[in-house]
Amino acid sequence: MTKTLSILGATGSIGTQALDVCEKRGIRITCLTAHSNDRLLEQQARKYRPHTVALVDEDAAKRLKTALKDTSIRVLSGMEGVCVCAADDDTDTVLTSVVGMAGLQPTLAAIEAKKTIALANKETLVAGGALVTKAAKDNGVRLLPVDSEHSAIFQSLQGMQHHTELKSILLTASGGPFFGKTRDELAGVTLEAALKHPNWSMGAKITVDSATMMNKGLELIEAVWLFGVKPSQIEVIVHRESVLHSAVEFADNSVIAQLGVPDMRIPIQYALTYPERYESPVKKLSLTDYGSLSFQKPDEDTFRCLPLCRSAIERGGLCPAIVNGANEEANALFRQGKIGFLDIADLAAGALDAVESKDDYTLQDVFDADEAARAYVRAHIG
Ligand code: NAD
Ligand code: MG
User: Fold this and answer.
1) For residues 168-191, average pLDDT
2) Mean pLDDT for the stretch of residues 18-41
């Protein structure tokens, strides 16, 4: 169970909800980091009193340093500053809630410093899965999932005696705001419509990923790395209500699932208090209020990011890093109004075909593949 926590990506959707959980559970905050939101990081620093804070953006870090000069809080900058917070001596657990594969380097720094990892930052595991899981194994570090589906799978696996008992994973998906739409209808959808998620309130990047179902593809890859299963052992099921957060099927065809109202503070808290459970601020689930729950097959002809991710992890090597890098670029371009919604899947598929992969890779190979995928996307818009 976590006593001292460093949060990488404190100002985001996961970071702020984690601070709420820490306050209620009396978990001491040691370090907080963010990209450039100095105003919010200052407020958080004053309230939670970490000994160190870091901002990636140098100008924002300068402003924060001035703003916090009446305190003893140390202010660092750049990715080095974030990595210092990841490897802090006074910290037992690091919550990785940075968005994007920018979280890869600090996650590896935290693992090498033997910190328990509460992992929200899925892109890190997608892009560098082999490096992250090997580093965790070599350093005897636990990767505790924060993503709601992976927390559900992890919770459902408690009590499993042997890995051979696990037959398959049922990964549930809300289907996002565009479930049931045709490709023609999707061609002209706006950013505003893509940001209207039916069940979850999240950061902009992951909300767009949910609309394209790239998020479920990334989660499929995340599950392969976290639970040591083959991609073919994972079935994606659309479950519109987001109440059954995922399930596992055992050798005897018994299926065990975790359910709850859609609120990230349950999986965040479970990762931080594991293996114990405590009261949480989250509303009780009333199944009779729901009355019925629905389950359907995903439409993979329309939502092509899902089969694309499955094929990337089946091919292995740098393929998931290529799809992830292309998606990070295309997702941002869609949010800037520079490309259409359906272009995201097309550009990610194009990058996977065009950028060279290799089976065994180093950290530098991941950065190079990521950059090549982004460059492919920039060169193929319009
Ligand atoms: P967000 O955009 O709300 O917050 C991102 C945080 O990361 C912010 O604190 C930001 O300052 C920081 N950040 C952004 N770019 C950075 C960079 N280049 N370097 C360092 N820090 C940077 O995102 P979020 O919705 O909180 O998601 C965070 C991660 O958690 C993502 O990987 C997402 O897929 C995952 N996740 C989120 C949810 C959710 O409910 N929001 C659920 C499951 C998983
Ligand atoms: Mg999820």
Assistant:
1) 96
2) 98
Ligand 1 contact via 342 beta carbon (within 6 Å): no
Does ligand 1 lie within 6 Å of residue 331's CB atom? no
Determine if ligand 1 sits within 6 Å of the CB of residue 53: no
Over residues 143-173, the pLDDT tens digits come to 999 999 999 999 999 999 999 999 999 999 9
pLDDT score, position 180:
96
Closest listed residue to residue 223, CA positions, set 128, 129, 318, 362: 129
Name the residue among 255, 264, 98, 252 with its Cα closest to residue 171.
Answer: 255
10 lines ligand 1 (CB under 6 A): yes
- The per-residue pLDDT for 382 is 75
Tell me the C-alpha distance between 222 and 128, whole Å.
10
> Ligand 1: which of 6, 7, 11, 13 to mutate, most ligand atoms within 8 Å of CB?
13
Counting ligands in written order, which one lies closest to the CA of residue 34? 1
Q: Which domains does the chain have, with CATH numbers?
A: 4-145 (3.40.50.720), 151-301 (no CATH), 316-382 (1.10.1740.10)
pLDDT band at 174 (very low <50, low <70, confident <90, very high): very high
Query: What span, in angstroms and rounded, lies between the C-alpha atoms of 343 and 97?
Result: 27
Q: How far is the CA of 226 from the centre of ligand 2 (A)?
A: 13
At 288, list the tokens.
């009779």
Do the Cβ atoms of 212 and 147 come closer than 8 Å? no
3-state class of 152 per DSSP?
helix
CA separation, residue 276 to residues 2, 161, 272 (Å): 10, 19, 9
DSSP labels for 76-100?
Answer: EEHHHHHHHHHT-TT-SEEEE--SS
Instruction: Judge contact between 52 and 74, C-beta under 8 A.
Output: yes
Confidence (pLDDT) at 89? 98
**Mean residue pLDDT across the chain:** 97
**Integer Cα distance of 129 and 288 in angstroms:** 40
CA distance 93 to 5: 5
Task: Give percent of the chain with pLDDT exceeding 70.
Answer: 100
